[in-house]
Give the backbone structure.
Amino acid sequence: SGAPAAGFPASVRLIGEVSGFRERTRWYFDLKDGQAVVNCAMFATAARKTKFPLRNGQEVVATGRVEFYDKQGRVSVIVERLEPVG
């Protein structure tokens, strides 16, 4: 499990297109726009509260927290809420 990433706000809000969606016990996906790709994970408890089916190519607003995974040197966003754009 990760630790909060220093220098980032406690909560972040991202808007982007879902890609690489895979559903395990958690949801894993990337959010991308014209400039960046962000790795995201969503725990099952939060995923169950999502009121629409998530699919690749969909534009969403994701709210969550940035975490740093020391062993991989990787930053991810742990998504707590998703909303469709529009």
Summary: The chain is about 5% helix and 55% strand.
